[in-house]
Amino acid sequence: MNEYSLREYIGLNEIVGPLVIIRNIHNVGYNEVVEVVDNEAHSRFGITLEVGKGYAVVQVFGGTGGMSLNNCKVRFKQAPLMIGVSEDMLGRVFDGLGNPLDNMPRSAYDEELDVNGMAINPTARDYPKNIIETGLSSIDVMNTLVRGQKLRSPGSSTGSLSS
Question: Which domains does the chain have, with CATH numbers?
Answer without folding.
Answer: 8-76 (2.40.30.20), 81-117 (no CATH)
